[in-house]
């Protein structure tokens, strides 16, 4: 891919790197299936050594995993007739029969309206990956079905995908997404040989440890022992940052995916009717349709919509635009009207003392500048 930069975007990101809000950023802006702007700024690794970011730097995508893997695989299964968005969990996940969450639908999981809680430290509450499913199925969902963004929804959805495909989520993603698209730099649990191409993350799981302490999870001796096992203290570089994904062998439906901006772009094109090769074009309506009007957020299947108050879409994207963020500092937004894709990958948790900087204002400004640049380029 030719390396094209946009001066106004670079100025914005360089200023934020200079302000120590994030050590590196790689962005890609595409239009009508083709990349238009691509650049890399800053250092992918600051400590324990110094490595500059490049367009081929691999990032821990964090919650972009929810859409790039879990949502897309779910849509593929819907296309294949193996489930619908209205399928109840108990119809596609045998283990859920008799559980309180069993009557939740695939759509409720995909729109975060299942009633499941926002987060739980599963590494303190379950013994292994399979026990995670048992724990979530034992949860008592809230009767209030407003939007509550929760990793548990997509962990549960990934177990549905595993049961229907007979493959672990990483294997299903490789067979149905990565291989058909010819992706070389995308996957879970990257090999040690790739480490120097990977942007580093937090210096241990300090943020999660503080969260566990503040929410009262580290009281018992058993919880403290588990925390010592699963909450890391060394710099996280080349393995997944998210504690629950790390506990689940690095392979989960909510986090765990590593990729480059270019590979993210190839996957992102699958969500737009004009460029998808893996889905029926009509299925792409799932990603721009508002299923939660009147609730706390406007959400489509898997994504937040730009019509959500205070979304990170900025002021220039169409209301039907849809996007997702990742805790490590990643984001993806798509505008089906403009046929535009906006990817911003950063590692804001690296080389940074707590608290981490909220970069949502940077994301909004990035999208505004990118839209203006596309208009000038057209």
Describe the structure.
The strands form two sheets. This protein has a seven-stranded antiparallel beta sheet, with helices on both faces. Strands 4-6-5 form a three-stranded antiparallel beta sheet. Strand 8 and strand 9 (330-335) form a beta hairpin. The two termini are 19 Å apart. With 378 residues, it is of the alpha+beta class. It is built from 13 helices and ten strands.
Give a quick rundown of the structure.
With 378 residues, this protein is an alpha+beta fold.
Total helical elements? 13
Strand order of the largest sheet: 3-2-1-10-9-8-7
**Between the first and last Cα atoms, what is the distance in angstroms?**
19 Å
Note the overall shape.
globular
H and E order:
HEEEEHHHHHHHEHHHEHEEEEH
Largest sheet: 7 strands, antiparallel
Could you report the average pLDDT, rounded to the nearest whole number? 97
Radius of gyration: 20 Å
Structural class: alpha+beta
Secondary structure: number of strands: 10
Estimate percent helicity: 25-40%
Low-confidence stretches: none
| Strand content bin | 5-15%
Describe this protein with a few key phrases:
34% helix, 378 residues, 10 strands, alpha+beta, 3-stranded antiparallel sheet
């Amino acid at each position: 891919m030719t390396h094209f930069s946009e001066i106004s975007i670079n100025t914005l990101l360089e200023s934020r790197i200079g302000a120590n809000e994030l050590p590196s950023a790689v962005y890609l802006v595409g239009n009508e299936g083709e990349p238009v702007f691509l650049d890399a700024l800053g250092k992918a690794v600051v400590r324990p050594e110094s490595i500059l970011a490049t367009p081929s730097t691999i990032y821990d995508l964090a919650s972009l995993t929810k859409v790039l893997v879990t949502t897309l695989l779910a849509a593929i299964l819907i296309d294949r007739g193996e489930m619908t968005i209205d399928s109840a969990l108990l119809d596609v996940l045998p283990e859920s029969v008799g559980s309180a969450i069993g009557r939740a639908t695939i759509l409720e999981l995909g729109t975060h309206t299942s009633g499941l809680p926002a987060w739980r430290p599963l590494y303190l509450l379950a013994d292994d990956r399979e026990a995670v499913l048992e724990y979530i199925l034992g949860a008592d969902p809230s009767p209030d079905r407003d939007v509550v963004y929760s990793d548990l929804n997509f962990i549960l959805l990934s177990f549905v995908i595993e049961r229907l495909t007979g493959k672990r989520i990483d294997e299903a993603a490789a067979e149905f997404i990565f291989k058909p698209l010819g992706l070389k730099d995308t996957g879970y649990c990257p090999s040690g040989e790739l480490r120097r191409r990977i942007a580093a993350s937090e210096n241990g799981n300090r943020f999660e440890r503080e969260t566990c302490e503040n929410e009262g999870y580290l009281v018992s001796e058993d919880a403290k022992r588990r925390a010592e096992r699963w909450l890391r203290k060394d710099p996280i570089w080349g393995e997944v940052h998210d504690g629950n994904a790390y506990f689940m062998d690095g392979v989960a439906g909510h986090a765990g995916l590593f990729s480059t901006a270019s590979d993210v772009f190839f996957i992102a094109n699958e969500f737009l009717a004009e460029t998808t090769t893996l889905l029926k074009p009509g299925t792409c309506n799932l990603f721009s349709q508002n299923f939660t009007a009147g609730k706390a957020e406007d959400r489509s299947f898997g994504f937040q919509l730009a019509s959500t108050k205070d979304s990170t879409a900025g002021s220039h994207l169409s209301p039907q635009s849809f996007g997702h963020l990742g805790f490590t500092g990643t984001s993806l937004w798509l505008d089906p009207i403009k046929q535009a894709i906006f990817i911003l990958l950063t590692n804001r948790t690296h080389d940074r003392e707590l608290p981490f900087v909220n970069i949502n204002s940077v994301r909004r400004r990035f999208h505004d500048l990118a839209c203006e640049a596309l208009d000038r380029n057209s």
